[in-house]
Specification:
- The protein is mainly alpha-helical.
- Helices cover 79% and strands 0% of the residues.
Length: 334
């Protein structure tokens, strides 16, 4: 496309749109003209972006299209209805659509943690490289550091601290996925290594049942949220490599917006797991009761994703913005 010829042919339409946007009172005919010019300019912007990207012209037209969209659609404010729709449609549908990424991530990660736990638990030389014998005994003894950790701070502050740390880890998985998913793999490995060390050391001390009784109540839901974030981050990284029939810019924008919404949803899920870790895990409840609470929370989340999310996804929900709120695009040739 000859950009100079294209600009010369359509400059008058852009100037006319700009002039209409500066006016406060429009006649019916002028309002119709504004809508038509907005649609044409949005198409022009999409063509320039795909065929002959020019930073200055793209910036001007992007601003013009944004102003026109605001005028045509009106200012939209988030409402409780939007929040409800996000929680019942957008978020669970996004998690459901990403299941082919986070379920394998969960299975492989769990296998890695189990393998590390077995290796550490059956090799005393590996244990000695982790800490001195006296320190290991202090970690694993009844009432030792592994058990005291969950009651080391008041429940409310401990739950808030755990929630903050886990939410940051999930957000990092989602954001850093764009770097081909490599940082996500590192974050996952660090989490599985920490879990494997706990499993290995406590199993070597003959107290694996105690360790699982402390981890499972909150860990099931917590790790599932981390796996969802990691799987979504890996999918975002794969989008950079293979955007499919979409342009790479469009694919990253769509998947990135979905990942951003998922980050907010996972923060709520991690808040629940943090509350369980702060109030249930260190409580005096029997082990079977605490584990039952953890399993119930996990099953409730999976039902939420597969029932509400599956239904919303089959109805066309993707977790992305509504079509009216996205940047205007036109089809491009394959």
């Amino acid at each position: 496309m000859d950009l100079d010829v294209f600009v010369a042919a359509h400059r008058a339409e852009w100037d006319r749109l700009d002039a209409l946007l500066r006016r406060r009172d429009l006649t019916g005919a002028e309002a119709d003209e504004l809508v038509t010019l907005y649609q044409r300019t949005a198409t022009h912007l999409s063509l320039i972006r795909s065929s002959a990207p020019d930073p200055l012209l793209t910036g001007r037209l992007s601003q013009l299209v944004a102003r026109a969209r605001s005028t045509v659609t009106g200012t939209r404010r988030a409402s409780w209805r939007d929040v409800t729709r996000f929680l019942t449609h957008g978020f669970p549908a996004a998690v459901y659509r990403a299941r082919h990424w986070w379920i394998p991530t969960a299975l492989v990660s769990t296998a890695v943690a189990a393998l590390l736990g077995w290796w550490i638990g059956t090799h005393p030389d590996v244990q000695s490289s982790i800490a001195a014998p006296a320190e290991l005994r202090e970690l694993t003894r009844p009432g030792g550091q592994y058990e005291a950790y969950y009651s080391s701070h008041p429940a409310a502050s401990f739950a808030a601290q755990v929630w903050t740390n886990n939410a940051q880890a999930a957000a990092m998985c989602l954001v850093l996925g764009v770097f081909l998913g490599l940082p996500v793999l590192w974050i996952l490995f660090q989490n599985m290594l920490n879990l494997g060390i706990g499993v290995g050391l406590m199993s070597s001390a003959g107290r694996l049942d105690t360790f699982l009784g402390l981890v499972l109540p909150h860990g099931l839901l917590e790790l599932t949220a981390v796996f969802v974030a990691a799987g979504t981050g890996l999918r975002l990284g794969w989008t950079v490599i293979d955007p499919g029939p979409r342009t790479r810019r469009t694919a990253l924008a769509e998947e990135g917006r979905s990942a951003l919404g998922m980050a907010m949803g996972l923060a709520l899920i991690l808040f629940v797991s943090g509350a369980i870790e702060g109030f249930v895990t260190p409580s005096g409840l029997p082990t079977w009761t605490r584990i039952t609470i953890g399993i119930t929370a996990e099953l409730a989340f999976l039902a939420y994703v597969y029932v509400l999310g599956g239904r919303a996804a089959r109805a066309g929900e993707t977790g992305d913005l509504d079509a009216a709120e996205r940047s205007a695009t036109v089809p491009t040739a394959a």
